[in-house]
Fold:
Amino acid sequence: MTEPVIARFAPSPTGFLHIGGARTALFNWLYARNKGGKMLLRIEDTDRARSTQEAIDAILDGMRWLGLDWDGEPVFQFSRADRHRAVVEELLAKGKAYRAYDTVEELEAMRANALAAGKPPRYDGGWRHRDPSEAPAGVKPVIRLLTEDAGETVVEDAVQGTVTFPNADLDDLVLLRSDGTPTYMLAVVVDDHDMGITDIIRGVDHLTNAARQIQIYRALGWDVPRMAHIPLIHGPDGAKLSKRHGALGVEAYREMGYMPAALRNYLVRLGWSHKDQEIFSTDEMIAAFGLDSVGRSAARFDYDKLENLNGHYMRATPDDDLIAVFKQSLPYLKGGPEAQKKLDAGLWDAFRIMLPAMKERSKNFLELLDNASFLLDERPLKPDPKAAQTLDMAGTRDLLGRLTPRLAALADWTGEAIEAEVRAFAETEGAKLGQVAQPLRAALTGKMVSPPIFEVLAVLGRNESLARLGDQAG
Ligand code: GLU
Structure:
């Protein structure tokens, strides 16, 4: 029987959950779910100066928003420092680690010499075999891993293939700093081991770390988990992803009005493919996901593609489901809280009726809000420049003035009845339908583009519609 898969996502809470981190989390989650295993969450908060509660909250919130759950409680790395120190004691006792008493000046000289000789700066292993009695007074030691000079360290990577590092390139890394704090490299290994991690999936920027971590596993006699180092995400121009490109926190995407399902679908295709399929339900993603279809070349972030995908999701999501997702995003959208108040005060039914027409014209929730402005804006509307131009055309306000009493006299206030009356009115005026409908749209919505105008009148209701007409008619 094969052992159950235990993957993990291990963010450092020094900033928000950025888009690359979100994709790493997604890949781990899909991998674990595909294998019927678990995904654990470990917050790597050992950098005390840069780790913040705000960042931890943003990471957890971002994951929840994206629908990426984790098994069990998050593990906080800093809280495990005693265990990390105990492991270092074990390595010292086994002769696999040693105390190094180099002074800052000595380390700097070592660095300078190496650079002058055109070599990469490496620790020279000077304290490997020296006795602590030789230690200079007042220097607190660091504890270093005793690594092999000869041979090589091989990373068998599910994405990168077999990657070989000559041991001569890997110096004796610090496990415990002179103040007794464990290093990141040590903490990751001990935690992954203790958490029973079977698979490590993370960015390829950790590949060299993998070689160093394997040395620690070996020194401890522990099994090395399977590893997969996934390519980074680049901007559309091929340069490393920066803020300018969209290397924002996932909460920024919520504020931009994207649906979590669409962002998830977008992220899964950054580096992974399944035939030429672009749209995946969550279940399809889980069923199809595998590391063998993760490419090695950097993925390119493409806003237009995300935008189109989101538009697709909005159109394809059943209206009630879409409203539920929209409601969750509303508080984060610009103008959202005010819109929410108005909708909650009795406009949700009208919103629901108009949603099919509004979502056709919206690629994100901000556009949806904008398309709903005819419902949310209050009288007297301020027509936008194009609508104002239409209303100001000679004869238009008078035309609306003649139409108003005819609409007021309608027995039934339905889209069909209104349309029939407007058509009849256009005929008596010797005008085309558009010559009446466009000014009507301008007066009723303040815009030249809106959902079908007769439906607009119907949902606004007789009083509001006639009042808006009255505001503009001559
Ligand atoms: N904490 C590391 C980071 O956020 C990840 C370490 C790992 O996955 O091993 O980049």
Remarks:
- The mean pLDDT is 95.
- Residues 317-376 form one domain.
- Residues 246 and 303 are 8 Å apart (CA to CA).
- The first strand starts at residue 6 and ends at 9.
